Each structure stands twice: as C-alpha cells, then as structure tokens.
Amino acid sequence: MGSVTQLPLSCAAARWAGLGELRHAAATGSTNDDLAREARVGDRSPAVLVADHQTAGRGRLARRWSDAATGPRAGEASLLVSFRLEAPVAGAFDRTAAVAAAALEAASGALAGSGAAVRAKWPNDLLIEGLRASGKVAGVLSEIVDGDPPLVVVGLGMNIAEAPPEPGAVSLAQAGGAATRDEILASLIDALPGYLADPGRAREDLRDASATLRREVRVQRTDGTSIVGTAVDIDGSGRLIVAGDSGEVAIEAGDVFHLRS
Description:
By secondary structure, the protein is α+β, with helices and mostly antiparallel strands. It folds into 2 domains: 4-208, Bira Bifunctional Protein, Domain 2 (BirA Bifunctional Protein, domain 2); 216-260, SH3 type barrels (Roll). Helices cover 23% and strands 34% of the residues. It has helices spanning 11-16, 31-40, 93-110, 181-197, 199-208, and strands at 4-5, 21-28, 47-54, 78-86, 117-121, 125-129, 135-145, 151-159, 216-221, 226-234, 240-244, 247-251, 254-260. It has an 8-stranded mixed sheet, with helices on both faces. β6 (125-129) and β7 (135-145) form a beta hairpin.
C-alpha cells in the first residue's frame, strides 16, 4: 500500500460512526484485498480504506474493476473505498446491502435537481438514468473473512468526476452531479451507520430503487445455464427471485440482462 495519510473531511466522522480508522492510499492493488489481508493476520478491528487508484481492483466473479485515475488529480475521478465490518450471523448480504443503500443515497443526493435518478441493478450495480447521461456509475463487492468474530469486507467503486473508458460506464459529473469525491465519501459515511443498524430499511430502499424488479430478465448463471422470466423479488439472503414458465427460481449469483420494461 502506498503512502498513507488521512482525509480530514471524513476520518473523524468514520470514527464517530463506529466504522473505525479511516486511511488513505495514493495507490494500492485492491482496497478489499488490503483489509482482508490485515484481518487474516490479526487486525480484526473496524476500518475504512480509501485509495486514489487501484492496480488490481476486482468486480464480481473475479472480473477486473477499472477506475479512471490518471494525472495529478486522479483521486477526484473515482471513489474507491472498502469497509471492514463485523459480519452478522446471516452472512454478508446485510452489510453489502447497507453499503449499497448508503451509496445510493449519497449518489442520489449529488444528483438532486439534475433530473437524473439512481437505480439499483441486481446484484451489485448502481445505474444512472438521466437526460445527460445514463449507465453504470458504481459497483459493490463483498467477501467474508472467517475467524472470531467473522468479518465482511465490502468495497465500493463509484465514478465521480470521470468514468473509465468502458462501454456503459458513466460518472456523476456526466449526469449533472457537482459533488467531489470527498463530499460523496462524507455522505456515505453519514448514511451508512443507519443502514447497518436497520438492514430491513437498506433492503427496502434498494428494492424501491430497483431497476431489475418487475422486469423481464435473462439471468446467466455461474454454471452456464440461463433463466428467462420476470424478476419478482429479492429475498432476505440477497437472492433474485425469477418467475418463469416452470415456476419461481431463487438465483444466488449471475449476470442479469434486462430484456424490456
């Protein structure tokens, strides 16, 4: 991990909120990997790690997460942050949902008055639907770290001032948002404790903002099979419930393609 400083706008708020020490790295391989590695060698305290650039950022299903970090102002392009949290008995989903809901709230606040809306696409993406720009603005990734107590590391990547040169990627700025990386981080840290304390509210807010529910979808599952039907619900474990010709199927992981509204 590169040289570490603290972001004064948010580090005191993180401690006050019970999220632990907030640290900042100019560059690192992966903020998720860093916090998980520390936990495996004995540091199991809550923590927040922010990076300006990741050289080995990861998305779902071992895919690479790209950020738009270039030049001396690279830290303003994206919010790259991971949280190390105690895991609930039920597993990682409640913590993942809390971070996603807090990110949804922060991004929606930044776009207030722009005419753009932030939507949640199952399982872990945030989309912008707007007149100026539409596309994927953020993604969330979590992993369990076994031990006593068990922990979950939840990472968030959000395009703030720039989007990476990938199809379908969009930034808050392109959609009309004027907030900086540190302002979005402060909003995220302000919203997160409430969602951690009330997982049901996190799930409900994500359900209300869902771009996937009530749509015809095709889900490509990790075993290579696919399901076509209507996305009708997301259960308490985070599984997408799809109603097809053979009844309802609960899907734990896969890629969702929206077929029509």
